[in-house]
Write a structure and sequence with these properties.
The protein is built from 16 helices and no strands. By secondary structure, it is mainly alpha-helical. The chain has a domain of 176 residues. Helix 14 packs across helix 15. It starts with a helix and ends with a helix. The relative contact order is 0.10.
Length: 365
């Protein structure tokens, strides 16, 4: 009997559509970073524009131009001040890190000799705290790493500005783009649209809401940590603050990632005294996060247990590396709420606006 391809497609329509969707994602994987950055910028700036529209009567595009002008002015001003300092501080940090590790190793050897019954614990910690485990390179490669980081800064800045331009272009013509996308339901690919549109929109809301909350929390954490580093005279402040910010984009696990270099440098500067002060400062900052920021911001958006978050991050890193860490939590929340609980009453993420369609309606005003 001849194979009826048309009937095969109709019978397995959903499977074919989603297979094609994921194949498309795989084909554009090298551009995924830029696409993801553009999406996050679109989500955040669109929320800001809607916030301004509700309070200041003016055309949507006027608000949009104002928001981007203020953002780029602040960004250029910050880069002109921070970038020259960052090059110097990166070199100093990579020079101090081995010295800090050596001081910690000597202390761990001393503790292992003094408390022999805990020697395996101290020696295991010593093995963990080395340059190769922390950075994936040996000591001789640290200088080359510093040069490489500085050389790539311009590339990363250009990449970010490119995402900013793309996001502005998309938001500037968002009402028209939304109408054209909605018109796909009347074309030959209406089956694809009807199958994927709602799911992609819900997924975008979950990811966008999660990262908007996490960026806000990371910014507040970075500000408080930078103030603490300045008061304790732990340098380099700018570089450590940037590490805190980017580590703060990783829920729960980012606390530990950002704390290690601060404690090591503090220990190298003044021993246990400054290290304990730094640990106290970190504890205070993250107590503010745990008891004030997370319950009111991140947990209110995703409502997920911190222990479960760590499990998701571990599995995500094991299976997908960096992107598993970045997207593991929002993807897991989406799968649980909108796939496993499909058909039940599940609320959308708590964001300032309700649905994509409402955003489009407001954008026309």
């Amino acid at each position: 009997m001849a194979l009826d391809l048309h009937q095969l497609f109709r019978t397995n329509k959903k499977a074919f559509i989603w297979a094609a969707f994921f194949i498309l994602l795989y084909l554009v994987r090298k551009l995924f970073g830029l696409v993801f950055l553009t999406f996050i910028l679109c989500y955040i700036f669109n929320n800001i524009v809607i916030f301004l529209q509700e309070r200041v009567p003016a055309r949507r595009r006027a608000h949009l131009v104002l928001v981007y002008f203020v953002f780029l002015s602040m960004l250029v001003g910050m880069l002109s001040i921070v970038m020259p300092r960052m090059a110097t501080e990166t070199k100093i940090f990579l020079q101090q890190l081995p010295e800090s590790l050596d001081a910690m190793h000597r202390l761990l050897d001393e503790m292992a000799g003094r408390y022999s019954y805990l020697a395996p614990l101290f020696l295991g910690l010593k093995e963990t705290l080395n340059v190769n485990n922390m950075l994936g390179i040996n000591r001789e490669a640290l200088v080359a790493l510093a040069v490489k980081v500085v050389n790539h800064v311009t590339q990363y800045v250009t990449y970010f500005f490119l995402g900013t331009v793309f996001s502005f272009t998309i938001l500037f013509d968002l009402p028209n783009l939304s109408e054209k996308i909605s018109a796909l339901r009347h074309t030959r690919i209406r089956d694809v649209y009807e199958e994927t549109a709602e799911s992609v929109a819900k997924f975008s809301l979950v990811v966008g809401a999660a990262f908007q909350a996490q960026i806000f929390i990371a910014t507040l954490n970075t500000t408080l940590t930078a103030l603490g580093l300045w008061l304790l005279q732990i340098k380099p402040v700018a570089l450590l603050s940037i590490i805190v910010f980017f580590a703060g984009l990783i829920p729960v696990l980012g606390i530990f990632i950002s704390s290690v270099p601060i404690l090591l440098l503090a220990f190298n500067l003044q021993g246990w005294t400054l290290a304990l002060k730094a640990a106290g400062m970190i504890a205070i900052v993250h107590a503010v996060e745990a008891y004030f920021l997370n319950p009111n911001i991140f947990s209110a958006v995703l409502k997920i247990n911190p222990v479960l978050t760590l499990i998701i991050l571990y599995i995500g890193h094991t299976l997908f590396g960096l992107w598993g860490i970045i997207l593991g939590v929002p993807v897991s929340v989406y799968i649980y709420r909108y796939i496993l609980l499909a058909g039940n009453a599940v609320e959308a993420p708590s964001t300032p606006e309700a649905t994509p369609q409402e955003r489009v309606d407001r954008s026309h005003s």
